[in-house]
Design goal:
Layout (H helix, E strand, L loop, with lengths): L3 E4 L2 E4 L3 E2 L5 H14 L3 E3 L7 H11 L7 E6 L6 H15 L4 E6 L8 H13 L3 E7 L3 H10 L4 E7 L7 H9 L3 E5 L11 H10 L3 H10 L4 E2 L6 H8 L8 H8 L20
Length: 274
């Protein structure tokens, strides 16, 4: 049983399956495999182009829809109110579900004010198309503005978090507002597996460097959504709840953070806090 993180009325499974870049039959197969292994949290988005496959994988798994947490997202170029509504409806149609557990603003827009988008996001919760709502890639100022404008509670900020990046300020702000943090790219897109510090800690626990990095995050109460195209990695990523890191090990991993360690920084990204 995967534990949950509680945030503003939501109970979010701590470990989810990220589906970015997965397409077609391999996506369907991986989603179904993940759910059969015990995952109960799927993360997708309109821009991923795989919502239909994620929904198909859910149905193929045989796991009841009500037992699975589904997150999807509205991209930054669809944040004008009318476009937002169409994006949400399209996501539900592709997933073939009447509602999602979590709906996020995928990236902030540089042209559409949050004051225009937040009512549409909150309306999706009020009318039942989303059980919970939140944001992704929001900086400190954007987070404060979103919380101020929201008429429904925000439950997470999905951001890049791994041992090499310092997101302590944003994480602290989320917690002040009762929000969770969801970590994407928790393995820093391949940088974690060969890390000597993480590998050394892993050897002491009979775990891989990747499992140590994931454990470091979940032990802080952070939700993680690693992606993998390999079935064996799905099982490996799931096996992070049967050991604990010491305070010294947690500090040793935290010391790995360094400047310029962000791995996701597209042209439409906001001006980052750090």
């Amino acid at each position: 049983m995967i534990p949950s993180v509680e945030a503003n009325g939501a109970r979010i499974p701590t470990l989810g399956f990220g589906t970015l870049t997965l397409k077609g039959d391999p996506c369907v197969s991986q989603v179904a495999t993940a759910l059969r292994l015990g995952y109960r949290h799927l993360d997708t988005g309109e821009r991923y182009g795989n919502e239909a496959e994620v929904g198909e994988g859910l149905r193929a798994s045989g796991v009841d829809r009500n037992d699975v947490w589904i997150t999807t997202k509205v991209y930054w170029d669809k944040l004008a109110p009318g476009d937002f509504e169409k994006s949400v409806e399209g996501s539900l149609e592709r997933l073939k579900v009447p509602w999602v557990d979590l709906l996020l603003i995928h990236w902030p827009s540089k042209t559409v004010p949050l004051a225009d988008t937040m009512p549409a996001l909150c309306r999706a919760k009020k009318d039942g198309r989303a059980r919970h709502i939140g944001v992704a890639n929001f900086t400190l100022p954007l987070l404060e503005e979103a919380v101020r404008l929201a008429t429904e509670p925000l439950v997470t900020n999905q951001i890049e978090v791994h041992p090499y990046i310092d997101q302590s300020k944003v994480i602290a702000a989320c917690r002040r507002h009762g929000m969770s943090v969801t970590a994407y790219c928790p393995l820093a897109r391949g940088k974690v597996p060969g890390d000597p510090v993480l590998s050394g800690i892993g050897q002491r626990h009979g775990k891989t460097a990747s499992q140590v990095a994931l454990r470091w995050l979940v032990q802080q109460g952070i939700v993680v959504i690693p992606r993998s195209s390999k079935p064996e990695r799905l099982a490996e990523n799931l096996a992070v709840f049967d050991f604990a890191l010491s305070d010294a090990e947690m500090a040793e991993i935290a010391a790995l953070k360094r400047p310029d360690s962000r791995v996701v920084n597209p042209p439409h990204a906001p001006k980052w806090d750090a």
